[in-house]
Amino acid sequence: MTQMKESQATEAQGALPRVSHWIDNKIVPSTSGKSRPVYNPATGEQTKTVDIASVEEIDAAVASAKAAFPMWRATSLAKRADTLFRIRNAFDSHRDEIGALITAEHGKVLSDSAGELARGIENIEYACGVPQLQKGEFSEQVSGGVDVYSIRQPIGVVAGITPFNFPAMVPLWMFGNAIATGNTFVLKPSTVDPSVSLYLAELMKEAGLPDGVFNVIQGDRVAVAGLTEHPDIAAVSFVGSTPAAKRIYETGSQAGKRVQALGGAKNHMLVLPDADIGLTADACINAGYGSAGERCMAIATVVTVGEVHDPLIEAIKERLPQVVVGDGTKPESMMGPLVTETHRDKVAGYIDAGEQDGATIVADGREHPLYKESDGFYLGVSLIDDVKPNMSCYTDEIFGPVLTVVRVDTYEEGVALINSHEFGNGTAIFTRDGGAARQFQFDIDVGMVGINVPIPVPVSYYSFGGWRASLFGDTHMYGPEGVKFFTKGKVITSRWPDPATSEINLGFPRTK
Ligand code: NAD
Fold this sequence. Notes:
The chain is of the alpha/beta class.
């Protein structure tokens, strides 16, 4: 295997590399004439272009997946599991290359790219257990000579539409289980950091995945609409912002598809007065500013109960100068740039909005030298205190390195605040009181809860999903619910009777 893969090759001498589609296990350049720039967020330079699919190209990807489906669903469980093991090993032995691609287009620091990939690969490892995961149930002798058993079968061609912030992990949340259970897959990654999708596709081909089982379509809303409404797509798994998630859930459901659509977030950390101040301050910084706050499970708002407020703010403030912002490829950098200039400016706008609304700007990321001097999309870390629930810096998902702080007097007030926010993706409580933590897990109206764990992303053998406007649909992503989403149940009632005992009986079949 060569270091430079086909997916990274330049189209012509001097031209920027072009990121195209992946159909039938090969690169397929678009003929739509449409493309978008891809940037390195650390330098602000355009490094590539990404093709934007035409309707015909979307159809071609779906047709490839449709043609491969009968063969792939008939492939033995042992062979499918073996292929998944090979894919896992291929990803594992190219961690550095995949991580470097993530950092080059997303901007997150290399150690964070490695972490994203590690959590993504966990999902392939889970899917390697498909012979066990896809087992049905069997009941012998439900009636005289009658047995009943259930099986789970793949649903067909399924689509994954994924966001910019985890260009490897979120697709891996989806396609491991989808492919392992016998479906064929069409991925539509974000146009902001599209290269990883092709690199993974090439590795899967080398690992022995047959043509058509995994396809990639680069594109925008046309591609999303094309997949969501396509008559040959059986299910859509989406992760992204809430307005898009809601629209895709509605459109896909109306078109008769199974849809799971994960949306935005505003994760709160409730800090009780007995919490350890140093440990909690570290957690606020790690979970608030890691990956420049561009994580759907980032802590966005710290809710302080009573007297814990002042010492906690002081401890966070004291630690802020330790956060080294810089190019994600530099080992000393702890936080890279934001993903695009537009997004960086939108995030910075919330600092102004907070100030105008009367909040206290304890730290302003716009004062960071890289914000002022670099062409990269940098913003330093910001801490906004005295935030009130009606301010836009509280109501909106900022998705950047901006930590907002709301004071409450009691635990009950904190829980009511968290439960009344539009989003219910993740939340955390920091306390040394086990009873209070248990009560929180009971009371809180949020899908994923951390107890002294600020980013409670479930491991791959549980499932991931928020509540309220953070998820549309009824199955969570990956793990057991992912297997359920990508398979449909069938129940067989079976009898091998002696023809001599046969008679005419028009009554409804009874078991007793
Ligand atoms: P996004 O909604 O802009 O894009 C997600 C995907 O949908 C991309 O592939 C994009 O091309 C496509 N898309 C964008 N706008 C669309 C539209 N109007 N109609 C149809 N398709 C559209 O999201 P993003 O900016 O790439 O990612 C950040 C968002 O994703 C944040 O809101 C974050 O909270 C969310 N997110 C959620 C989770 C979760 O598990 N709940 C995980 C990661 C990211």
